[in-house]
Amino acid sequence: MRDPKTFRSTAWFQGDQYEHLSRRAWLRSEGFSDAAFDGRPVIGICNSWSELTNCNAHLRQVAEAVKRGVWAAGGVPLEFPTISLGEMFMKPTTMLFRNLMSMDVEESITANPIDGVVLLCGCDKTTPAQLMGAASADIPAIMVTGGPMLSGRWNGEPLGSGTDGRKLFEALRAGRIGEEQWAEVEGCISRSAGHCTVMGTASTMASMAESLGMMLSGGAAIPAVDARRYQLAEASGRRIVEMVLEDLTPSRILTREAFENAIRTDMAIGGSTNAVVHLLAIAGRAGVDLCLDDFDRISRETPYITNVKPSGQFLMEDFFYAGGLPCVTKELLPLLHGDALTVSGRTVADEVQEVQIRNRDLIKTLDQPLNPEGGTAILYGNLAPNGAVIKQTAASPHLLRHRGKALVFDRYETLRARIDDDLDVDENTVMVLQNAGPLGGPGFPEWGHLPIPTKLLKAGVNDIVRVSDARMSGTSFGTDVLHVSPEAAVGGPLAAVRTGDEIELDVPGRRIDLRVDEREIEGRLADRKPPAAHYRRGYGRLFLDQVTQAHLGCDFRFLGRNAGTSAAGAPS
Ligand code: FES
Predict the structure, then answer these.
(1) Which of 48, 52, 123, 274 to mutate to test the pocket of ligand 1 (most atoms within 8 A of CB)?
(2) What CATH code is assigned to 381-527?
(3) Most exposed: 293, 342, 381, 495, by fewest CB within 10 Å?
């Protein structure tokens, strides 16, 4: 157990100089008595609450539960805000700001008298941003996510955010449902506080936090409005005080074994393709050497066993009732590093000894999986020399090996403007979108689930092969090749594709190739005019100057663990 004299907050509050008096006095202005600063651990509650981030709008109540736990365990809780990233509202894309939020989290922790921190997040990017910031700050940290919304229901059928909304929007475009029914869907799809109800990016990243060992076991799937989420928050408040005394820092938890566990879990739950980018970035902050090949190797060895949309049938609320992530972990234990440490101070294996799987339709066995391989596959080829990703479990099986003629759009706006036209397309067409990557988007937007041309929807074609350097929402589905690296805007081969070229996709063989002579490709790339930079000043300029490509995680070059330590520290 640590001596309280070694706490970071001691340097701020304990002493007889003027600054010590003034710091204590200023905190007393908030109504704290001097007894609150007598050497107890100071626990920051890093809150991404915002009414502009609807998925996180209940986090102030969650923070109150955390505070109860901190006080009960003998700590002093101090809640603070950071920038929040609301997927529904922010333009051009929240991904442009993930790194900014991670810097805000890191600097808010390191610049203040905080001995340990509870991270409150929920919506897609808020979770990786907080994990990145906490890994860089490297003081004891525990995560509490906001949990998924209650399941939607319409017309007697479950309604999953994003996934079913998109399907019904395509039905609307094809004329299979009308405006009145569409309006009813709007009222049914989001029933409560919390994040999206399928295994989209928010649910995936909550599962990643749990499987990395950064959240108490069982926390990922508890519905946002269930009393047990507040009990989890209170327990996390108690636990962070103990973690400070044990000096249990993220660097002791975020090991290579922890990342391998997280990747394996991601594959078993059919997680969002965005997890690839975020785990690479978090690993970079933790100083763990991770690459795309780790994902593909683990994917080939790990069956997909979690029957949740968009790859499966059920919703996150059902997943919770089936036992949640601890049950997946228990099933996966023979393939996991069971001795990896978690925030509880216990190992991954210890945490799941007693859990019971309550719905075998939802959580399958390794012997009888939904798919023998994991949800995400990594592709290479002359179209993606540094890699691309595809969610193979949410793709159409008959398109996993496919060759077809390209229909190319060099800008997303053009694609949107022409999607209802009488395009020259059929079910074999390969739609291509260029200039939608980290620099091209800008910010790596979720445009990769390219809309199916209306002409095809009306003919009953609901999926075709689509290729882009964009990401896609974790709630999406379809045969979408994403994250093509290098992206078109920096001269990747995707920039050379022209309408009418043949593209060959071979997911079992892990290939994506442009069937055009290599010298012709080189010539086209040599002749291309690079697109103008989107930003000349401000944060956008910093992003364009410093962001890495998709296969490296899209963090800023100067933020990796090996780039050095933060400027901020204990005050003099
Ligand atoms: Fe926030 Fe889906 S919009 S999690």
Answers:
(1) 123
(2) 3.50.30.80
(3) 293
User: Mean pLDDT for each consecutive 10-residue tract of the chain (572 residues)?
Assistant: 93 94 94 87 98 97 98 97 97 97 98 98 98 98 98 92 88 92 92 95 98 98 98 98 98 98 98 98 97 97 97 96 98 98 98 96 97 97 98 96 98 96 97 98 96 95 97 93 98 98 98 98 96 95 98 97 59 42
- Distance in Å, CA 161 to ligand 1 centroid: 8
CB 110 within 8 A of CB 77: no
**CA–CA distance from 187 to each of 50, 152, 180, 256 (Å)?**
22, 9, 11, 44
pTM: 0.96
For the CA of 473, the nearest atom of ligand 1: 2
**Helix-strand-coil split of the chain, %, nearest 5:** 40, 15, 45
- What contacts 335, CB < 8 A, 6 or more positions away? 264, 301, 302, 366
Neighbour tally for 547: CB within 10 Å: 23
Ligand 1 centroid distance, CA of 221 (Å): 14
DSSP states of 270-330: T--THHHHHHHHHHHHHT----HHHHHHHHHH--B-B-BTTTSSB-HHHHHHTT-HHHHHH
Superfamily of domain 40-151+191-351: Response regulator (3.40.50.2300)
Query: Ligand 1, atom 3: nearest CA belongs to which residue?
Result: 87
Q: Where are the domains of the chain?
A: 40-151+191-351, 152-188, 381-527
Tokens at 37, concatenated: 């600063």
Pocket of ligand 1 from Cβ distances under 6 Å: 55, 87-88, 123-124, 161, 195-196, 200, 202
C-alpha 275 – ligand 1 centre gap (Å): 14
Identify the DSSP state of 195: B
Q: For ligand 1, atom 2, name the residue with the nearest CA.
A: 196
| Ligand 1 atom at minimum distance from 162 CA | 2
